């Protein structure tokens, strides 16, 4: 019984860590300054640790969120008092208002939390910080991403991302004015990119074995909806397009995994499980984006997703239209991942051999040979083309490169489908 209580407390604390971490860091940073963002993170982590210890002894409070923010507020107040005392003995000026003799000046209201989380995102997008570092800072500080998760999002390595974050934090410590209103319209593309990566980590987690992390995807949707309500943003077409893409992709969540929590491919999904309400919301947002008469990566991706959502079956999907959309997407984003995804539509329209040939032609150019998705896709194309030996070769390579046991198990099932009766072995 006691063990169940502890497990329940730990699970709830983990839930609040994922959902509240970035919001709390943003609000705390407002009061202690961006030069102390690491201290803000320490305060939030101490708050969550206190929650684990206190809730295990006294039980989960009626309003856990209020408990967390009250604790974070008190810890922030203690830091401000300590800074003031230290400055006094060093005879150094410090920008702490005299009214901070009480912590009543600190407001951790719902509106304040929402406003400061988004404001902190735009602060991280300061033009003196490189674009990729801006995104990495947002994902790490405000979305609670681990370094390995950021590396996965960038198709990079842990060492590179760690160096990027260290440089970014040094720049944040140059005391950017948190109170001043950043140019949100200039910085919006980076914020949207960060939110998109947040959604993608929820769509297919890199470090956890779940098929879907609903909390991350829902948080991404929540953030875009807040952006759309902001009067400060002039052109909202990209925000509408990204929201459409996320709604449409999220509509398939329930059909993407089975009762054993394993991935179900689109070809095997029960389309009756697709969420029609989310599809309708996605189509509405897509229509709103189209009205703005602006073509963007998110608009094309949302349109591709819409084509899948409106198709009654895989065979009746408009693959010609999807292939054409991928061709348009390549004009805006000539990346290896776009070409990899395009190969699926290419195979449907022009045959597996054509898709295989194109993929193999870009293997060296984009260094995709070190990506398990590349070999998984080639293995599947060879399997569909009845070339068992080559399919086995690429499935084995994909298994070796896959970093998540969820993906390993999925690929092993693929391997068994090529070599039945338990004869499939990882080479």
Largest sheet: none
Share in β-strands: under 5%
Q: How many separate structural domains?
A: 3
Helix amount:
55-70%
Q: Care to count the β-strands? A: 0
Instruction: Give helix and strand order, one letter per element, not per position.
Output: HHHHHHHHHHHHHHHHHH
Measured distance between first and last alpha carbons: 46 Å
Instruction: Please state the average pLDDT score.
Output: 83
Total helical elements: 18
Q: What kind of assembly state do the chains in view correspond to?
A: single chain
Contiguous uncertain segments of 5+ residues: 89-102
Shape: globular
SS content category: mainly alpha
Radius of gyration: 24 Å
Describe this structure in words.
The protein has 427 residues and is mostly helical. It has three domains: 108 residues, no CATH class; 114 residues, no CATH class; 77 residues, Tetratricopeptide repeat domain (Serine Threonine Protein Phosphatase 5, Tetratricopeptide repeat), CATH 1.25.40.10. The protein has 18 helices and no strands. The longest helix has 31 residues. The two termini are 46 Å apart. About 3% of the residues have low confidence.
Feature tags:
427 residues, mainly alpha, Serine Threonine Protein Phosphatase 5, Tetratricopeptide repeat, 3 domains, 18 helices
SSE order and pairing:
Blueprint: H1 2-32, H2 37-58, H3 64-90, H4 110-124, H5 131-142, H6 147-154, H7 158-172, H8 184-203, H9 214-229, H10 237-250, H11 276-291, H12 297-310, H13 319-332, H14 336-350, H15 352-361, H16 372-384, H17 388-401, H18 405-418
Helix pairs in contact: 1-2, 1-3, 1-4, 2-3, 4-5, 5-7, 5-8, 6-7, 8-9, 8-10, 9-10, 10-11, 10-12, 11-12, 12-13, 13-14, 14-15, 14-16, 15-16, 16-17, 17-18
């Amino acid at each position: 019984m006691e063990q169940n209580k502890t497990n329940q407390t730990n699970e709830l604390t983990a839930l609040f860590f994922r959902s509240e971490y970035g919001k709390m860091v943003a609000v705390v940073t407002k009061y202690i300054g961006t030069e102390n963002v690491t201290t803000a993170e320490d305060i939030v982590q101490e708050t969550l640790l206190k929650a684990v210890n206190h809730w295990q002894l006294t039980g989960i409070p009626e309003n856990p969120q209020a408990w967390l923010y009250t604790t974070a507020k008190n810890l922030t107040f203690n830091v401000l008092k300590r800074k003031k005392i230290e400055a006094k003995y060093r005879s150094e000026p410090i920008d702490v208002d005299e009214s901070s003799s009480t912590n009543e000046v600190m407001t951790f209201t719902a509106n304040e939390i929402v406003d400061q989380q988004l404001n902190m995102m735009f602060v991280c997008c300061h033009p003196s910080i490189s674009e990729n570092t801006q995104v990495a800072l947002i994902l790490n500080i405000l979305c609670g991403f681990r370094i390995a998760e950021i590396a996965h999002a960038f198709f990079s390595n842990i060492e590179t991302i760690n160096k990027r974050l260290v440089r970014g934090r040094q720049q944040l410590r140059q005391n950017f004015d948190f109170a001043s209103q950043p140019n949100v319209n200039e910085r919006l593309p980076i914020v949207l990119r960060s939110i998109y990566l947040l959604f993608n980590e929820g769509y297919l987690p890199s470090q956890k074995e779940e098929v879907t992390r609903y909390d991350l995807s829902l948080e991404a949707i929540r953030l875009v909806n807040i952006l759309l309500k902001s009067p400060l943003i002039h052109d909202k077409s990209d925000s509408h397009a990204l929201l459409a893409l996320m709604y449409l992709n999220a509509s398939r969540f329930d059909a993407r995994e089975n009762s054993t929590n394993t991935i179900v491919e689109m070809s095997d999904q029960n389309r009756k499980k697709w969420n029609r309400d989310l599809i309708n919301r996605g189509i509405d947002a897509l229509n709103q984006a189209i009205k703005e008469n602006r073509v963007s990566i998110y608009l094309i991706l949302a349109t591709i997703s819409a084509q899948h959502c409106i198709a009654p079956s895989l065979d009746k999907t408009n693959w010609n239209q999807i292939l054409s959309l991928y061709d348009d997407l390549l004009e805006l984003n000539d990346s290896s991942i776009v070409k990899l995804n395009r190969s699926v539509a290419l195979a449907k329209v022009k045959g597996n051999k054509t898709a295989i040939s194109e993929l193999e032609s870009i293997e060296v150019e984009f260094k995709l040979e070190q990506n398990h998705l590349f070999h998984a896709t080639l293995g599947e194309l060879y399997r569909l083309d009845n070339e068992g030996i080559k399919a086995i070769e690429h499935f084995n390579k994909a298994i070796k490169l896959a970093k998540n046991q969820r993906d390993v198990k999925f690929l092993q099932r693929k391997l068994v489908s090529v070599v039945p009766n338990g004869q499939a072995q990882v080479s």
